[in-house]
């Protein structure tokens, strides 16, 4: 096995996307660079795991820019993380296109930043100048930070996880002065209990929909995405732009184009750098729609 751990820049990146199915015997791993830390994520218990960890450590030792290797075992209950080499700095940030985001590499199942959403952040940043943005399923608000960097007038971030939104607030503070931070607001609510509030704040110029594939009773794609579509017209003007995302590997982009059948489809965003996939329909899908033409 050859690991590309030699030429690492400041920007965070996926170094090895085993889950894309293009590397034999490595479908169960991902290796990410969050300077100065290598994160090795294991998604299954496999015979070669110990060898993979040892090899990653050996390669990391050759590069002085790498000060720690963290292994996360996502196949175990609570997906524990462990520092297997070096010392983990108190604070590690994801860095992308000149913006920084807090990471949690010590605890929590998710560390706070989805590298595969880079094309979404780029799109929002490019299109947000002077716009009011509704960011549904905001999590740690990376799309909001990108929108404000792109000149958004206001971003309303909704997520039922108040702790994720608290990190989202900190992400804005990390990148912007206090006055600019006031352009972002946070609604720690279940979307399906908050429509009245969202309708009162409508219309929005950009609406981002980036739900999980499945999250117990809170979100199930086949049940809840159609519910969003039924209420969406209450939030729109004819010129609203919609970024609709789908994380479910078992559903391709056809699922979204069928749901948005009456809308104008401006196409799918490219996949993120480093996320090559032999079945692109299983990877994250981010599509750009606008309301039906009159
Ligand atoms: C895929 S993450 C969103 C990632 C985020 N857009 C980003 O780019 O970092 C999904 C989020 O949906 C939230 N969520 C799930 N069901 C929800 C619901 N019914 N109402 C509000 N938020 C929900 C979860 O708390 C989680 O933070």
Q: In which order are the strands of the major sheet placed?
A: 10-9-8-11-14-16-15
User: What is the general shape?
Assistant: globular
Query: What is the overall pLDDT average?
Result: 95
CATH topology of the largest domain: Rossmann fold
Radius of gyration: 19 Å
Question: What is the CATH domain class of the largest domain?
Answer: Alpha Beta
Helix content class:
10-25%
> If helices are DSSP runs of H or I spanning 4 or more residues, what is the number of helices?
8
Number of strands: 16
The assigned structural class equals alpha/beta
* Cofactors and ligands: S-adenosylmethionine
Total discrete domains: 2
* H-E string: EEEHEEEEHEHEHHEHEEEHEHEE
CATH homologous superfamily of the largest domain?
Vaccinia Virus protein VP39
Query: Based on the structure given, which CATH architecture of the largest domain is correct?
Result: 3-Layer(aba) Sandwich
Distance between the termini: 56 Å
* Poorly predicted spans: none
Q: What percent of residues are in strands?
A: 25-35%
Largest sheet: 7 strands, mixed
């Amino acid at each position: 096995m050859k690991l590309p751990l030699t030429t690492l820049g400041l920007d965070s990146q996926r170094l090895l996307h085993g889950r894309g199915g293009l590397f034999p015997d490595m479908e169960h791993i991902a290796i990410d660079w969050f300077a100065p830390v290598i994160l090795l994520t294991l998604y299954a218990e496999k015979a070669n795991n110990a060898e993979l960890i040892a090899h990653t450590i050996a390669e990391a030792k050759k590069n002085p820019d790498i000060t720690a290797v963290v292994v996360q075992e996502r196949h175990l209950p609570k997906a524990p993380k462990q520092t297997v080499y070096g010392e983990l700095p108190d604070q590690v940030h994801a860095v992308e296109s000149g913006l920084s985001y807090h990471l949690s590499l010590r605890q929590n199942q998710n560390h706070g930043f989805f590298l595969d959403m880079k094309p979404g952040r780029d799109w929002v940043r490019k299109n947000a100048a002077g716009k009011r943005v509704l960011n549904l399923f905001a999590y740690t608000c990376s799309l909001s930070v990108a929108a404000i960097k792109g000149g958004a007038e206001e971003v309303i971030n909704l997520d039922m996880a108040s702790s994720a939104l608290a990190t989202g607030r900190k992400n804005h503070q990390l990148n912007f002065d206090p006055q600019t931070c006031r352009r972002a607001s946070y609604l720690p609510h279940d979307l399906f209990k908050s429509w009245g509030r969202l309708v009162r704040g409508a219309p929005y110029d950009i609406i981002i929909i980036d739900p999980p594939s499945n999250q117990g009773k809170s979100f199930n794609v086949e049940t809840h995405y159609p519910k969003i579509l039924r209420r969406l017209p209450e939030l729109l003007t004819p010129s609203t732009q919609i970024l609709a995302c789908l994380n479910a590997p078992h559903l391709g982009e056809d699922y979204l184009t069928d749901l948005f059948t009456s809308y104008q489809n401006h196409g799918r965003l490219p996949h993120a750098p480093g996320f090559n996939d032999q079945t692109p329909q299983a990877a994250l899908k981010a599509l750009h729609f606008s309301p039906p033409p009159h």
